[in-house]
Amino acid sequence: MVEAFRNYLRSKAAFTDAELEQLEAAAIPRKLKRHEFLVRSGEICHYIAFVVRGSLRLYRTDEHAEEHILRFAIENWWITDAESFRTGLPSVGAIDALEDTQVLLWSKESWDRVKREVPAFNALENQLAGRNLDAQVNRLYAAISHTAEERYHAFVAAFPDFYRRMPLHMIASYLGVSRETLSRVRKHTGLY
């Protein structure tokens, strides 16, 4: 599990062996079974997770018990409920495993410590946070300005691994369309 994380870090920045060991020592390895929760709505999100193997989703449920997926995470992706993790307040969303999943977890305390003590990791985290913000803005813009077909094409182009691994109803939720609408779009475009 740790070797996959080392390979990921080495592909992103120049870390010394001592820095890699420090980052690994602060991590808690955990295995999640399919449908197992990392955090439930109403709980405090105590961890940020790096996905070694498998997939997770962050979602919220509305007053009609309809799920709205905010993000997916597969291998070499990070996921947390950022607001709950940062503030220590209960999570509005939930994170669960879509398949058997292996993650490395960092508590708020250990995360803040390694960011202080490993400058290259702090720089990487800042870079990832900026890219995440850009992606959120672009997704919001697409949601209010693009058709369902345009959003689906963009999703397939940007995330071919997600598209192949996620159930249709979850992709529809992520795109903000009904499953029926997505089925029509897929049939019309021939992109299955």
TrEMBL record:
Positions of transmembrane segments: none
Signal peptide: none
CDD domains for the chain: CAP_ED
PROSITE patterns: CNMP_BINDING_3
Pfam families assigned: cNMP_binding (PF00027)
InterPro entries listed in its UniProt record: cNMP-bd_dom (IPR000595), cNMP-bd_dom_sf (IPR018490), RmlC-like_jellyroll (IPR014710)
Chain ranges of the Cyclic nucleotide-binding domain: 19-114
Alphabetical list of Gene3D superfamilies matching this protein: Jelly Rolls (2.60.120.10)
Record-given protein name: Crp/Fnr family transcriptional regulator
